[in-house]
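Anyone up for a design puzzle?
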């Protein structure tokens, strides 16, 4: 069974929702966040990536997290956010490119996460985890929903379809062309109906937000919580769209390009395909950009893992045989020799990383299927960090889950000003 709990969120008033809604903190760089805020000062990125608010800042984490708290306080005290007085669930729907995904937004159980009723799907990058823990501890909110996936049950679908016939609380289109609508559920009978429907769902899977889930539950533990909850949106697997998550590597571990290609030929059939390419079209086929040229890498049959679902994934094969065995990158967690490029950014970004930014080689992967994500998790394994890119992503800032009464706290708290301009 899956336990879902209604909550009283802090959320933007309807007139500000479209402006406040921001990409998740890990979906944009600091430079991209700064550009967004120049065009839209109401973006919740002001809270999610507080370093953009601190010109000439030192690298003091205390200063950065204090600025996140100050920015949140400014949103609340200026009336951009309001506090719900009644318990709610929400149906958060995104539409793009003819696709629709609807997530049931509520609070999910840390206890069920620990018991693997809510299953992790990827390894954790622990540097990122500590940052999220500190951010939550300083702001006392969860700023965006974790993305959960479930095997569809008709009862949940019936509830979603019924609720979506009513006028939405929010309805706006973001700069990337995605339409966002949010419908609220506050009637007690409907709330019980949602909870009853999720009781029939045996397992949930963390599609996006492994760090956010663990961080929220870690903060709850630190504060002596027995049965904590985290904010999430649960989506039926049939509505989920996964894109590839590609890799770029800083160096060839001391190998010449010729020697590197020779090492690859142990595991792949290697074919040079010229200056232009398209995304890999099938599983067990990768594309590689090296020295201003593209190569097709087809995994040799005797190296394709068949012992379990994890070993059959291209992203696992790339990590084990190329990143670890050849390039000596022993862990993708927190390693500065590797970076990640979403499929949304396109193949041209992989070329630019090598041609203009000094990276040595880039790899394009075929996307992992949602069925594979579920199979790996059900088998008790974890995919490498950043194996999947879910698109579209739920925006942050539309629902804040307060961990305490921060409205009362902010009224009497003096703001520390770190925005010092000369």
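Challenge accepted. My sequence:
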């Amino acid at each position: 069974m899956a336990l879902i709990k209604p909550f009283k969120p802090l959320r933007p008033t309807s007139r500000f929702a479209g402006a406040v809604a921001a990409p998740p903190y890990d979906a944009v760089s600091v430079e991209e966040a700064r550009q967004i805020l120049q065009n839209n000062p109401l973006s919740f990125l002001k809270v999610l990536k507080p370093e953009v608010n601190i010109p000439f800042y030192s690298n003091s984490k205390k200063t950065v997290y204090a600025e996140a708290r100050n920015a949140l306080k400014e949103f609340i005290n200026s009336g951009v956010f309001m506090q719900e007085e009644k318990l709610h669930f929400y149906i958060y729907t995104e539409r793009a490119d003819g696709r629709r995904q609807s997530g049931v937004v509520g609070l999910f159980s840390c206890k069920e996460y620990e018991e693997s009723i809510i299953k992790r799907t990827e390894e954790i990058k622990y540097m990122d985890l500590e940052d999220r823990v500190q951010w939550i501890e300083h702001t006392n909110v969860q700023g965006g929903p974790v993305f959960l996936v479930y095997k569809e049950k008709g009862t949940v679908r019936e509830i979603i379809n019924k609720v979506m016939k009513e006028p939405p609380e929010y309805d706006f289109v973001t700069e990337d062309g995605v339409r966002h609508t949010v419908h609220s559920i506050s009637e007690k009978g409907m709330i019980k109906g949602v909870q009853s429907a999720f009781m029939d769902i045996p397992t949930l899977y963390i599609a996006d937000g492994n760090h956010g889930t663990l961080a929220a539950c870690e903060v709850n533990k630190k504060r002596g919580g027995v049965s904590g909850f985290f904010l999430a949106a649960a989506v039926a697997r049939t509505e989920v769209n996964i894109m590839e998550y590609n890799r770029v590597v800083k160096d060839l571990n001391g190998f010449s390009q010729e020697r590197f290609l020779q090492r690859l030929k142990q595991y792949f059939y290697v074919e040079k395909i010229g200056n232009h390419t398209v995304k890999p079209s099938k599983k067990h086929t990768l594309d590689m950009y090296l020295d201003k040229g593209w190569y097709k890498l087809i995994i040799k049959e005797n190296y394709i893992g068949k012992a379990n679902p994890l070993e059959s994934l291209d992203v696992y094969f790339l990590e084990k045989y190329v990143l670890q065995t050849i390039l000596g990158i022993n862990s993708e967690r927190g390693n500065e020799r590797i970076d990640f490029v979403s499929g949304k950014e396109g193949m041209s970004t992989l070329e630019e990383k090598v041609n203009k930014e000094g990276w040595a080689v880039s790899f394009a992967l075929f996307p992992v299927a949602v069925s594979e994500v579920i199979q790996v998790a059900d088998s008790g394994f974890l995919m490498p960090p950043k194996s999947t890119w879910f698109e579209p992503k739920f925006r942050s800032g539309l629902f804040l889950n307060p961990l305490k009464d921060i409205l009362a706290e902010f009224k009497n708290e003096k703001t520390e000003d770190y925005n010092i301009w000369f």
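A detail worth pointing out: The mean pLDDT is 91.
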